[in-house]
Amino acid sequence: MKQFLILCVFACYFCACAQQTTESKATPTNVNIVSVDSNDIYKLAQQSGKKNTLFYTFGIWCEPCRLHLPTAIKVAKDYDLDFYVLLVDPQNSNKIIGAVDYLQKLDKDIKIAVLKDAVYGDKTQKRNTKFVAEITPPQFEMIDDYSKYILLNNAGKVIMVTNWQDNPDSWEDDSDMVQIKIVPLIKN
Q1: Where does the record locate the signal sequence feature (predicted)?
Q2: What is the pTM (predicted TM-score) of this model?
């Protein structure tokens, strides 16, 4: 009887722990994260009050995203762009918390957006593919990679969407690609 009682207490403990884990949601605190779809991105660019708005797609698990982010931040500051880091993971993914922590250590005032689950679903690759297909104008090749620079003018028109093929020399450093593909459009 004593063993049965211990077994019941043990089972109840594990059930309580399992229930607690499934009910918790991954939501960062004290951070303003804008949930967006492609139409919201166009509107943010139109309402920014700046000549250009830059969105940079980011996942904390993506090494090129982390390596290229300082270049994106620098170009945004150097050229007075409205700048958002666009998180590609689902809104209530634990990866969002890690990404927000990482971003705020780089720049406490960084603007963060996340793709809407209601529009793009909860599978990272599928949501990214759908978003990139929507945001990429026909004159650019649609490649659903990450670490993308999406540059819009103040009319909300997408004027550049980069992909990995724009940076063939070194996947670790995209500063030359930014100088060739992004900066001339900003100066124009």
Answers
A1: 1-18
A2: 0.82
